[in-house]
């Protein structure tokens, strides 16, 4: 009788387990159907409403993704999430079902262990890592406020509200950038030991590999950066100055830590890497037009035969200089005789101007006045050239 009773109880438990299993499977199937339906409705709404509400992804006027492509990415992501949730449900369902049957209970424990063991390990690792995490947060907060303070003082110096003797305002932001790089590097070095896995050989190997790649791939970039800092502290020119670099004359329109750009009088933009500028001669025409200077000297040369009195040539050239717009009356224009050749003398008219941005126009006006002056004086500007031919 007891055996029959045990068999009946076993059958009842089996029937109950089967009933619970069918209920769980039905519930999970219903839940999966609901989830898939919700994702389908959500994807439909995104596809219909997204055409008007989702804007293209652009970076500096360069279109990375169109609205249609962004919608496809969102729908694809939702589909992956849907499949991931479904697989997770199925993975949880099987151990629960196996746990109701004595023959499969060990498999249930194993399947649950595959999930619970990593989660347990991750949980305790996170708990153990909390002190290091708080230390890193404090270091980052301190670094953030130190960088803010550095930027604040750099802005004050740049705007002239804070004056430090011997420190020029245009040094403020480059110095801030330099200090920012060193401070960030110092912060990373301080945080490094607190990073998870920092003591592992894999982490250290990856760090060394990244360092080698950066050092090999950025040799020219680092050289330009160093040259940019050197040029900044040399102060050979500033934005707006008219300079001459490698036979190119123009106005400095951009100066950063990697390149310098000039805009010529023909509206051409010429770019020089800073490392190239370091090895070039630089002529700055604006430095001679400062308030404490007489101005930039512009000059023109003419030649006349010895039959033409030099006093007359001097008078005409000086009168032409005085008649030229944008030429200063003080200091006075002057003439230099630069050459006494076999058949003619060379005269050079020199005059001062502070309108450096108008130099091509000033030369044009000066040349016109010189021609008009000698024409009015009845002097032919053509100089004789002689050639001896031997036979």
Keywords:
elongated, disordered C terminus, 391 residues, alpha+beta, five-stranded antiparallel beta sheet, 9 helices
Description:
The chain is elongated. The longest helix is centred in the middle third of the chain and has 54 residues, at 105-158. It has helices at 2-53, 67-98, 105-158, 172-191, 201-217, 219-234, 274-278, 310-322, 359-376; strands at residues 57-59, 62-65, 242-245, 248-255, 259-263, 269-273, 282-284, 296-305, 334-340, 344-353. By secondary structure, the protein is α+β, with helices and mostly antiparallel strands. Helix content is 58%, strand content 15%. The termini are far apart.
Write the layout of secondary structure elements.
Blueprint: H1 2-53, E1 57-59, E2 62-65, H2 67-98, H3 105-158, H4 172-191, H5 201-217, H6 219-234, E3 242-245, E4 248-255, E5 259-263, E6 269-273, H7 274-278, E7 282-284, E8 296-305, H8 310-322, E9 334-340, E10 344-353, H9 359-376
Antiparallel strand pairs: 1-2, 3-4, 3-7, 4-5, 5-6, 8-10, 9-10
Helix pairs in contact: 1-2, 2-3, 3-4, 8-9
